[in-house]
Request: fold
Amino acid sequence: RHAMQIDASVDLHGMTQNEAHVALLRFLRRAQSDGARIALVVTGKGRRTTTDGAGEGGVLRRQVPMWLALPEFRPFVVGFEEAHVSHGGHGALYLRLRRAR
Reply:
């Protein structure tokens, strides 16, 4: 996974859910039209909710995989997996993009 050729990338962390949703859809349209096959999406790992490091951090980290299953994203994404540590690990995803028709 660390040797993947990344054709396009977008950094969503720090955005609101609405901003990130719009930015991701716009990014995927552009990346697909440019012929990208592998994209890196940085969601960020999120903040810890308790002082001991436990809890659910990262709203975008949880939301982006769910968005990718929505009908509006299906024409762009074949599949995805967590990125290698060198590309952001838990705070990033590799997306395999469909070819433009």
Observations:
- The first helix runs from residue 17 to 33.
- The first strand starts at residue 8 and ends at 11.
- The mean pLDDT is 87.
- Helices lie at 17-33, 59-67.
